[in-house]
Design goal:
The complex is a heterodimer.
Chain A (H helix, E strand, L loop, with lengths): L4 E10 L2 E11 L4 E5 L6 H8 L7 E6 L2 E2 L5 H6 L2 E3 L12 H8 L9 H10 L16 H14 L4 E5 L7 H16 L3 E5 L3 H7 L2 E6 L2 E6 L1 H6 L1 H8 L13 H5 L2
Parallel strand pairs in A: 3-8, 3-9, 6-7, 7-8
Antiparallel strand pairs in A: 1-2, 1-4, 4-5, 9-10
Chain B lengths: L2 H31 L7 H18 L4 H20 L7 H21 L9 E2 L7 H19 L2 H11 L1 H6 L4 H27 L1 E2 L6 H14 L4 H17 L7 H15 L20
Antiparallel strand pairs in B: 1-2
The chains are: A alpha/beta, B mainly alpha.
């Protein structure tokens, strides 16, 4: 069932280091929210906070009417939060079918072959061998299988941690279609990504983190024009020439 | 006398030993399948052996009541042990659980009710080969039943990647707890049967060398394969009978076999009868 994820003034500390400070954001059904920022800005920490791996120092996280903060990770997963990992974390020794069954662990009953096929198709892997060990798959397929595993949980919220890392431009373009199609089914997506082409093509909104705080938020086009974001993260090559009517011209230069 | 009767008359003790050792191997296999290198099975078996022996000798409990009490005790101890070791993984868990086994041995060695270092003799000898293998069949059937449930998936996921398992909704703490308690129950059954099959117990029967032996059975069979563990136990129980000279060097032989398997066949010998698909190509 589609539900909205709400982070209200979330703070996370690692010892004396403030990893996240009063971060508030909303991920609504069918919306893809991009989360960008320099390395160490707290993007992955934010996902870890939502999934219960990083305990909150302050603030609240709610999914629909349910408080998530303070719950153990497995109960948060069962509440409808699925994720992929920056460094792929498939169950490598187990086959594709079992990895998908793992994703559906909290679902009643087992996972039929038909369901497995549908999941793989949604993740852009229509021809994958269900009996292949996950670790033997090509890198790009492993990234997509991780997405399929997350979809197997029928999540309200899907969090993708740099899904395009290591992909070539053609693969990234296909990934955009995949993400768009998933969002089209009413799933709320939180997307961490460094590839601005992907962010602009896939995201409805963008939140920029810097030193654990929200630096800016807006549409991808607004973000690309924001001087503070350019200064902290994007760099001047992303500046859209003032004469250009839209972001299209700057996208062409990449 | 028929051939089988003659064979049984000559080898009944060995057959009993194989059955009990297979149970011990299964008890460790349960932990290893969940990725937990918990080496307390000899200790659990020892506790159960003494409980069952004392219940039947001093309190005149009937056989099955003694065994039941013994299994209950070893399960309870395993469940209690699960709490202090809940944050330990890998080699640290191994060290802590080996330490637990030694504590059991030292206590048994030094209290009067267990007969101390001299051991207990004159335990009612009323467990025969049939009872042992009925117990083994019961445990095998229960484990087979479990292997077809979602718990088996949870166990495999916990073994492969605990954090990712939690990420798909597996209560890995519960899996670790359950695997240790279940291992304690099976080891307890083995220990109780041992006491009544061999009617003589000493603390040394359940010390570290025994634990190492159990580990070797599981490792040569393939750590995630219960059938492999049973086969490993049977093979290494028969080996000293075939090569008589080995019996005196059992611990050295075990060490050499353990090393050889880790070096040359790290997945254990069970890969020989597994389908090729299950093995991951190296260039992955």
């Amino acid at each position: 069932m589609p539900e909205t994820l709400l982070l209200d003034r979330v703070g996370v500390r690692y010892g004396g280091v403030i990893a996240l400070n009063a971060v508030s954001l909303t991920v609504a059904p069918g919306i893809t929210l991009g989360l960008i920022g320099p390395n160490g800005a707290g993007k992955t920490t934010l996902i870890n906070a939502v999934t219960g791996i990083a305990p909150l120092a302050s603030g609240t996280i709610t999914l629909g009417k349910h408080r998530l903060d303070g719950l153990p990770p497995h109960r948060i997963a069962r509440a409808g939060i699925a994720r992929t990992y920056q460094n792929i974390r498939l169950f490598g020794a187990l086959d594709v079918r079992t990895n998908l069954a793992a994703g559906a662990f909290a679902q009643p009953g087992g996972l039929s072959n038909d369901t497995a096929r549908t999941l793989l198709e949604r993740a852009g892997l229509p021809d994958l061998d269900l009996d292949a060990p996950a670790a033997a798959l090509p890198y790009g397929d492993q990234r997509r299988l991780e997405i399929a595993r997350a979809l197997a949980a029928r999540p309200s919220i899907l969090m993708l941690d740099e899904p395009a890392a290591g992909m070539n431009p053609a693969e990234t373009a296909r990934l955009v279609e995949t993400i768009r199609a998933i969002a089209g089914t009413g799933v709320a997506i939180l997307l961490i990504e460094h590839d601005m082409t992907l962010v602009r093509a896939a995201c409805d909104h963008v939140v920029v983190l810097n030193f654990g705080e929200v630096l800016a938020r807006g549409t991808p086009a607004e973000i690309a024009r924001d001087p503070a974001v350019i200064e902290a993260y994007l760099g001047s090559e992303h500046v859209i020439p003032s004469k250009a009517p839209s972001g299209a011209s700057s996208r062409d230069r990449h | 006398m028929t051939f089988f009767a003659q064979f049984y008359a000559q080898h009944s003790r060995l057959l009993d030993e194989i059955g009990i050792n297979a149970l011990l191997a299964l008890s460790l296999s349960v932990s290893l399948q969940a990725g937990q290198l918990a080496l307390a099975q000899a200790g659990f078996a020892g506790i159960a052996a003494y409980v069952s022996a004392i219940a039947s000798m001093q309190y005149r409990w009937p056989l099955f009541a003694s065994i039941l009490l013994a299994v209950a005790c070893s399960t309870l101890v395993a469940a209690l042990l699960a709490y202090p070791v809940r944050r330990l993984r890998g080699i640290f868990l191994a060290i802590a659980t080996v330490g637990f086994g030694e504590i059991v041995r030292v206590i048994v060695n030094n209290v009067s009710i267990t007969g101390g270092a001299e051991g207990l003799s004159g335990i009612p000898n009323n467990v025969n080969t049939g009872i042992i293998y009925s117990g083994l069949a019961l445990v095998a059937l229960a484990l087979f039943g479990l292997s077809r449930t979602k718990f088996a998936l949870a166990v495999a996921l916990t073994r492969e990647d605990e954090a990712a398992a939690r990420g798909v909704g597996v209560d890995t703490g519960m899996v670790r707890f359950a695997s240790l308690a279940l291992g304690g129950a099976i080891a307890g059954l083995a220990g109780a049967l041992y006491a009544h099959a061999f009617y003589f117990l000493t603390p040394a029967d359940f010390g570290f060398p025994r634990m190492e032996e159990i580990l070797v059975w599981c490792v040569i069979g393939g750590v995630t394969s219960p059938i492999g563990a049973v086969a490993g136990a049977a093979f290494l129980s028969i080996l000293p009978e075939i090569i008589r000279g080995l019996a005196d060097f059992r611990e050295i032989t075990n060490g050499v076999i353990l090393l050889a398997v880790i070096l040359f066949a790290p997945s254990g010998l069970s890969v020989l009868w597994r389908s090729r698909r299950a093995t991951v190509p190296r260039d992955a």
